Amino acid sequence: MKNNITAIFYIIIATLLSLCSATHGKRLHASASCTMEVAQEIITTDTIRLMFGGDLMQHLPQITAAKQSDGSYDYTASFEHIAPLFRDADIAVLNFETTINTSGKYSGYPLFAAPPAVANAMLDMGIDIALLANNHCCDKAGKGIDSTIEEFRRRKIAHVGVYKDSTDYADNNIRYFERKGVRFALLNYTYGTNGMPIPKGRIVNILDTATIKRDLHTIEHDSIDCIIACMHWGIEYQRKANREQIAIADMMRREGVDIIIGSHPHVLQPYYADSTFVVYYSLGNLVSNQQWRYSDGGLLAEIEVIRCDTIDGLRYQTTPHPVWVLQPGYRVLPRSVGDTLNMSTSTRGQYELFMSDTDKLLEL
User: Fold this and answer.
1) Which of 5, 33, 109, 163, CA to CA, is 20 to 30 A from 237?
2) Which of 124, 168, 125, 120 is nearest to 145 (CA)?
3) Is residue 87 part of a domain?
4) Domain membership flag for residue 11
5) Is residue 259 part of a domain?
6) Which of 170, 95, 75 is closest to 137 using CA atoms?
7) What's the CA gap between 129 and 152, in Å, rounded?
8) Other C-beta atoms within 10 Å of 197: how many?
9) How far apart are alpha carbons 340 and 205 in whole angstroms?
10) CATH number of the domain within which 70 lies
11) Domain residue limits at 199
């Protein structure tokens, strides 16, 4: 009798897990996860919460807005409303699409150089990993790469995708980390550098399928539970993933990648998620001076990595959090703040248009 009850129990568990079907642009709901109160005494679950942010840009008006009366720079107001979402995560990751200049000579598009205070803001938010492989990483040549990496090192923020030298590359090309016993490997690539030459001695991970496969094959898959690839790809301002993005994502999934996070288009693109794989083709802008429709906001991608002792492998559950940039001050607003914050009629209209566009695109 006991054996029959046990068999029936596992049939029920298998049926529940089969509900983790593929969705396009929709969250996998809690009913599809392996956390079930009825089975707490048999199934134990660990959940690791990952949070990814889109393009952190630094156009010159943003730098000017951050300047204080004493000549210093402070980005606290820009990020205060989203900081708790990053701080609450087990791992927080941002695409850093600028360079850091320590000489006081700052600039926006087309050659980005921001004050070190922006790294202070990232530290305050609890950012763990800065993604550096993007088309603006070489904007200030070797000095820009070196100062950017050094400023992050000073704050103990890990970097990936761009490297000062071969030693830095050997140490950090694949960023390994562990949370709650789950072992991760994270990689970062860019389609190019806007035609800027890669400075002598420095290394930038260029998006090339042969290189990606080579790097993935160096990972000892038996000792890693989850592989994350962060890709700077696609066509700017195109709101759908193109064939190349989809083909590369399919290839990486076949090669064992579990989570893909995209950047570069500066607008949102639909995402795909099932219980074993998640791909966000573009998170859009976290913050920028691009204030026109579709580019005036982006997504935070929350991904829960769920481990169940009685089930082989990990399960993934994701929630997109739309964010919009409010002027003045380039304040990044999640919906929980923006829906009730006092705004002028015209500003409220822009905010609601972005949220409506986002809901339609992602089928929320």
Assistant:
1) 163
2) 168
3) yes
4) no
5) yes
6) 95
7) 9
8) 9
9) 42
10) 3.60.21.10
11) 44-359
In a domain, 56, yes or no: yes
Q: What is the pLDDT of residue 44?
A: 52
How big is the chain by its Cα radius of gyration, in Å? 21
Q: Reduced to 3 states, what is the DSSP secondary structure of residue 167?
A: helix
H helix runs in the chain, sequence order: 2-17, 60-66, 76-79, 83-87, 117-125, 141-154, 166-172, 209-218, 243-254, 335-338, 345-362
**In the block, residue with structure tokens 């089928």:** 363
At 308 the pLDDT is 84
User: Measured in Å, how far apart are the chain's first and last C-alpha atoms?
Assistant: 46
Locate tokens 């998006």: which residue? 207
- Provide the domain count of the chain: 1
Is the pLDDT at 24 greater than 80, yes or no?
Answer: no
In DSSP terms, 282 is beta-bridged to: 269
State the pLDDT at residue 309. Answer: 78
Band the pLDDT of 300: cuts 50, 70, 90.
Answer: very high
pLDDT tens by residue, 219-274: 998 899 999 999 999 999 999 999 999 999 999 999 999 999 999 999 999 999 99
Residue 177 corresponds to which tokens in the numbers above? 């980390």
101 C-beta neighbours (distance < 10 Å), count: 21
The model's pLDDT over 165-185, given as tens digits with 9 standing for 90+, comes to 999 999 999 999 999 999 999
DSSP 94: E
Report pLDDT digits (tens) over 200-220.
999 999 999 999 999 999 999
